[in-house]
């Protein structure tokens, strides 16, 4: 190697500059969970958010919004939130109950999620027919009978009392912690219902739920 000093004309050349290694900063994958309810669902998914955002801040970040709206209006609000965010949400999960809403609105919300999805953002219709309490009940047993949603609450109370956890109510803040040990059972039971409802629209899938799709996505981080 020559020991001659570098020429001034060579100092400005890129290949003569000292190499500076820079770590590429990876952005976490952002998820937006927008729920119809303002108590039950935000509490349940909010518990997951606290665990995941704290444990994996560089890999995945969740935002949970309880909107107090339903079906088509909920989808429009979720899309506006996603489009106005600087984060760039990779997944937008729209969590809603079918309740007694019009069948065409229930089904159109799911159709819009599929239609409006792109390479940048995937919209997911996470419906429960009739309500999210069906997902809670599936943690304890498989339920295929088309029962009115009001019958779910006594059944949940029966299960919670047997665990020494008291009565079920819509505004309970501890449902995630109570149900977590039975999560795999719930996923398996929900998948059974999916097979039974194969080919049916959401409004005709009674009982049925898609909550397990969101939970399965988040489960590796819990």
Q: Can you describe what's shown?
A:
The structure is a single chain. The chain is of the alpha/beta class and 222 residues long. It has one domain (27-221): Rossmann fold. It is built from nine helices and five strands, in the order αβαβαβαβααααβα. It has helices at residues 8-11, 40-55, 71-84, 103-116, 133-137, 152-162, 175-179, 183-196, 211-218, and strands at residues 29-35, 60-66, 91-97, 122-129, 208-209. It is globular and about 45 Å long. The N and C termini lie far apart (57 Å). The mean pLDDT is 91.
User: Tell me about the biggest sheet?
Assistant: 5 strands, mixed
> Which residues sit in consecutive blocks of at least 5 with pLDDT less than 50?
none
- In the CATH scheme, the class would be Alpha Beta
**Do you know the CATH topology?**
Rossmann fold
Helix-strand category: alpha/beta
Distance N to C terminus = 57 Å
Query: CATH architecture, please?
Result: 3-Layer(aba) Sandwich
The helix count comes to: 9
Strand content: 5-15%
In one word, what is the shape? globular
- Supply Rg: 24 Å
* Helical proportion, percent range: 40-55%
Order of helices and strands: HEHEHEHEHHHHEH
Mean pLDDT rating: 91
Count of individual beta strands: 5
- Estimate nothing, just give the exact number of structural domains: 1
């Amino acid at each position: 190697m020559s020991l001659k000093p570098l020429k001034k004309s060579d100092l400005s050349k890129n290949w003569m500059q000292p190499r500076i290694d820079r770590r590429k900063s990876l952005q976490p994958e952002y998820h937006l969970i927008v729920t119809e309810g303002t108590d039950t669902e935000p509490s349940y998914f909010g518990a997951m958010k606290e665990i995941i955002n704290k444990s994996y801040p560089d890999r995945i970040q969740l935002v949970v919004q309880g909107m107090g709206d339903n079906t088509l209006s909920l989808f429009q609000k979720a899309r506006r939130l996603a489009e106005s965010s600087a984060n760039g949400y990779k997944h937008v999960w729209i969590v809603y109950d079918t309740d007694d809403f019009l069948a065409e609105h229930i089904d159109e919300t799911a159709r819009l999620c599929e239609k409006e999805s792109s390479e940048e953002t995937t919209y997911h219709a996470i419906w429960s027919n009739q309500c999210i309490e069906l997902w809670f009940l599936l943690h304890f047993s498989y339920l295929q009978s088309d029962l009115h949603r009001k019958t779910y609450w006594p059944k949940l109370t029966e299960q919670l009392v047997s665990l020494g956890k008291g009565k079920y109510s819509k505004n309970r803040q501890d449902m995630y912690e109570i149900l977590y040990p039975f999560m795999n059972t719930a996923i398996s039971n929900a998948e059974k219902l999916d097979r039974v409802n194969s080919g049916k629209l959401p409004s005709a899938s009674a009982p049925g739920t898609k909550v397990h799709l969101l939970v399965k996505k988040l489960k590796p981080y819990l």
